[in-house]
Amino acid sequence: GTSDGAILECRGIERRFGGIVAVTGVDMVIQPQEIFGLVGPNGSGKTTLTNAITGFYPPNVGSIRLEGKDITGTAPHKVAKLGVARTFQNLALFNGMSVLDNILLGRHIHMNPGVFRTAFYWWAAKNEEIENRKIVEEVIEFLQLESIRNELVDGLPIGLKKRVELARALVAEPQMLILDEPMAGMNQEEKGYMSRFILDARAERGVSVLLIEHHMDVIIGICDRMLALNYGEMIASGIPKEVVKDPRVIEAYVGG
Ligand code: ADP
Fold this sequence. Notes:
Layout: E1 8-17, E2 20-30, E3 35-39, H1 46-53, E4 61-66, E5 69-70, H2 76-81, E6 84-87, H3 99-105, H4 121-142, H5 158-170, E7 176-180, H6 188-205, E8 208-212, H7 216-222, E9 225-230, E10 233-238, H8 240-243, H9 247-255
Parallel strand pairs: 3-8, 3-9, 6-7, 7-8
Antiparallel strand pairs: 1-2, 1-4, 4-5, 9-10
Bound molecules: adenosine-5'-diphosphate (ADP).
Adenosine-5'-diphosphate binds next to strand 2 and helix 1.
């Protein structure tokens, strides 16, 4: 059956690529405003599961519900419009563009192309522009990107690039935020900042978060619950402090 009140509910997810079973039998239920960790060694199916949710590679078997609504197989741009935003494991920023312009791109899902066809073009476009600017300014302030807003993203340190990516996801005003290794390559201090921003995004913007992360200290520090995958299958789930002690999880990391 369905879980009442869940923001995201994945049931029996299987995705194959040719002969490879990338994930199978995966159940994952995320409650509103939960920070939910997803861990597993490389190749365990974490990205495949997020690609199934966001519609890039729909599941071959299973169902995905967002706030109770079946979104299985829905196209990525529609899933985005329904309120799911993601960041990518490998940065997807546009070099040669400023921090501000990269963040503004995150607004495009809300831009209304019909605006350009009406007699009220100028007025409507202006209003939309004002609304876009408002949310973008809020997020720039929230993530403390003010001082670098006009810099090109190209030369920024990894910690700031990851923060710009988070900003771009947040300006879409998502309900569900999927972060794919947001702390990769970060030092302890940068990880601390990013953890704080994720907690604050939940507190101030009400987002629910699916966090793919290899740093177990971060998972234990900020996740309410977590799921561990290995070879595309669920091996443990529950409270992080307990899951990380699970012999199957330790084995997956030591053995893998
Ligand atoms: P993780 O994100 O945990 O590192 P992935 O989901 O990327 O794991 O990969 C799980 C398995 O699925 C791997 O064997 C990988 O090679 C395979 N896989 C993932 N995406 C594709 C794809 N687009 N085409 C073919 N195989 C894929």
